[in-house]
Amino acid sequence: MHFHMEERHAEGQSPFVVVGNADMPHASRALSSRGTGSGHDRLHATPGPAVGLRNEAEAEAGPLYAECPIDGCRELVAAVEMDYHLELHVEEAAGKESDTATAAATASAETTNANSLTVQLQRKPVGRHSRASSREEGAELDGLEPVHVQARERPDRDSGALQEGPADCPRLSKRQRAILESRNIFKMLFTPSSSSVSSRRQPLGPGTGSSSGTHSPLGTPSKRLGKAQLGKYWDEARMPDWLIDHLRNHGQVRAEGVIPVLLQLLSQSPCTKYAFLCHPDVVHVSKLKREGGFCGYRNIQMMSSYITAVGFNGSQRLGKRIPSIFQIQDFIECAWDHGISPQGREETGGIKDTRKYIGTPEALAMFRLLDIPCTAQGFRHEEPGRSEALLLDGVENYFRDGASDPTARVQCTKLPPIYFQHAGHSMTIIGFEKQRNGARNLLVFDPMFRDSTHITKLTNRRFKCKYPDTALKAYRRGNKYLQKYREFETLSLRPPPGGFKPL
C-alpha cells in the first residue's frame, strides 16, 4: 500500500518512479574523443550514454535510473545499484541516530600515530543514555555496532559482509527502518535476473586491458554532450541563486583523521589478510544536503587535500587550500582557455556556475593547468571479470610499490589517493585490501556519503572495536560492486623526482 500511494498518488515526482537514461548521472565520458593537451595519457572508451554498462540489453536501451528516496540525498542512482546505495545510507544513519549502543573508550591525550591500537569499546544494554564529552578521559561514545538486526560477524565470499546470527544487536532507529523499507521496495522492483548481470558485452573495439588506447585526431569536431552525460541540468546557463549561496556559505562536509581510524579497523578485522592505505592526511569530502551531483568536484577536493597537506606540486597555485566548487570551475574553464582539452567547452557548453556533471577529463585538465603531474588510465577487457581484475591489479601494485614495510599486514603509505570513475559515479580510492578468503576490495571515500559519527568520534584516539567489519563496510568496494561495469578510469598523481615524501 505504501508503495502504491508513493507511485500512483505522490505529491510531485515520486522517488519510486524510475526515470530513463535522460537523467543519468555523470557517466564516464570517453577521453578518446577529447584531446588532453599533451598527446598522451588518453583513455580509450566506448562513447555514448551506455558507457561502462555490463549488460547488452541495458547498453542498447540505456540503464534505468531512480531518485534516491532519502531526504537530503535525492541522487539519481542506477536501479541495479539502489539496494546497495540504500544499504550505505543505513550505515550512514547508524552514527546519526543510534542511541542504543554505547562504548567505554580511553581518550588518547595526544594525536594517535598511524600504528597505535589500544582503547576497548564495549556495548551497554539497549536503552537511552546521556553522552559525555568524547574528549574526556573515560568518555562515553557510541560504539561501532552492526546495523542489521540479528547479525554476527562472518565473512562471505566478497567483502566480509554480515550474516544472520544471534539476536543480540541493538534495534534500528526509525530512520534506519525507513531506509530498509525503501530497500525492500526497490528489491521487489529491481532484483536482477540472471541475465541482468550477464557477462555478455557490446563490442569494445580494438585494445584490451589497461591501455591509454586511441583517441580522435586533433581537430576533429567535438559533439555537444546531452543529458545522458551531463545530467538533468545539461543545458543550464546558471544554477539557482539559493544553491550558489548554499555552496558558498557551507562549502563542503570535511572529515579529517578518518584514515588512521580505518587503519586500526583493518588491523582488527578477522577478514583482512593485508591492506594498504594512502597518506593519512587525506580528507574525506562529502556532499552537502540538496547540493545535487557534484561528486566529480568532491573527488577533486579530496585529491587536493593531499596536494595541500604535503606541499605537492601545485599546492602553491591552489593557495595551499582545498579549492571550492566555484574555484574548480574557474580552473577548468581557464585550462580550456589555455588550450588544454579545449573541446571540453564545446562538449559541455561551459560549466561555470552550473550543475553540469564533470569527470576524469575535467580533473585532468585542471591538474595540467596547475602543473600537477598526473596520469590517466583506462581499464577494460572483453572477457567477463577481466576489467575489474585489471583495475584491482593496478591499484594493488600502486599501493604495494609505495609500501615502506613489506612485512606489515596493514599500513599507511606516503601515497596520494586515486581519482576513480565508472559509469554513473566517481569516488576516491584511498587504499586496497586483500581478504583471507581471496576477495579483493578497493577502499574508497565516497563523496555521496558522510562518515558515520561512530567513525568520526574515533579520530585522534586508540581503540579496540568489537565489530570492525561492520564499520568498514561503507568503505569497501569489491567484486560484487565492480562487476556491474565493464570499464573504469583512474587518475593518479605522478611521483616527483626522489619519490613521494615519507610520512
Automatic annotation (TrEMBL):
Species of the source: Phyllachora maydis
Protein name in the entry: UFSP1/2/DUB catalytic domain-containing protein
InterPro entries referenced in this protein's UniProt entry, alphabetically: UFSP1/2_DUB_cat
Keyword Hydrolase listed: yes
Biased composition annotated in UniProt, kind: Low complexity: 100-116, 193-222
Pfam family, one: Peptidase_C78
Record keywords, A-Z: Hydrolase
Ranges where the UFSP1/2/DUB catalytic domain occurs: 273-489
Biased composition (Basic and acidic residues): 150-159
Start and end residues of each stretch annotated as Disordered: 27-50, 95-173, 192-225
GO molecular function, one term: hydrolase activity
